[in-house]
Design a protein that fits this description.
globular
């Protein structure tokens, strides 16, 4: 990560985090059924697509398989150490560092046909996505699209394969996670993201809510626990971190008994005039 960048990520980095992100991606695809929303129109020739907060770049490399070689795909993140090296990439895929709270790179301003965003839910500040959207608007060509996909944490709920199974440890862990930073772990802006699009002047705004499939709950529980472990490692409160660490094996036992968490996926698309 470049010096001076405003990285306030509350999850981890490294090989375990990369594994979680990649598994999470495939769970996400099962819930939504698409990489690009069917309502997003791509140019017939040489589309330029940016994936913001790209993580491991898995969404971008998956999309590259479905597009012509003339497409240009750019992944950006404040830290691109989790992205594949150039020698492992298609020739039309590249990655670069970019802090979404800073002015966009000048060479990309007005050059992007589609911007894809996913899971900035713990990154957006002060429950306000407007500063991020304003920077994204600078990057888009006229007629370009933004597709923003998020979890809605306030709506997350415990799900069980058998109603009689106890979820007491999952419930206590959820309470502790919510206490870490309420503005970020219980964001209120996600369900109003379509209104934020309209306030920035985007047209053709459409919101879709995608529920995870029942058969994906068991696998999703593993990614949830992995994410908890990453948050624990960065928790500034030692007492809370210890309490959560003690809960991890108990939550894992509940998963094996048929307990998981389900959170709706919120997908919003909009087009620049």
């Amino acid at each position: 990560m470049a010096p001076g960048k405003s990285d306030q990520y509350i999850l981890g980095r490294g090989y375990k985090a990369r594994a979680r992100l990649n598994l999470q991606h495939y769970n996400w695809q099962n819930a939504t059924g698409f990489l690009l929303h069917p309502g997003v129109d791509l140019p017939d020739e040489a589309p330029v697509i940016m994936d913001v907060g790209t993580g491991t770049g898995v969404w971008l490399t998956e999309l590259a398989r479905k597009l012509p070689a003339s497409a240009r795909l750019i992944g950006t993140d404040i830290d691109i150490s989790g992205c594949p090296q150039e020698g492992f990439l298609p020739k039309n895929v590249s990655f670069r560092e970019y802090d979404i709270f800073e002015d966009p790179p000048e060479d990309l301003v007005g050059k992007i046909d589609v911007i894809h965003i996913r899971l900035l839910v713990f990154v957006v500040r002060n429950n306000d996505p407007a500063p991020v959207l304003q920077n994204m608007m600078k990057l888009l060509k006229p007629g370009g699209w933004i597709q923003w996909e998020e979890l809605d944490p306030p709506a997350r709920r415990i799900v069980k394969a058998d109603p009689s199974v106890s979820s007491a440890n999952f419930e206590e862990m959820d309470r502790l996670i919510r206490s870490i930073d309420a503005k970020r772990t219980i964001p209120t802006w996600v369900r109003d993201l379509d209104k934020a699009f309209e306030q920035q002047g985007l047209d053709c705004v459409f919101i879709e809510l995608c529920e995870p499939k029942r058969e994906d709950h068991y696998c999703a529980a593993d990614t949830i626990i992995m994410g908890w472990e990453e948050m624990i490692a960065l928790d500034p409160d030692p007492a809370r971190a210890k309490a959560m660490t003690d809960l991890i094996p108990k939550c894992a036992e509940e998963v094996e008994a048929g307990v998981s968490q389900s959170t709706v996926r919120v997908v919003v698309i909009g087009q620049k005039s």
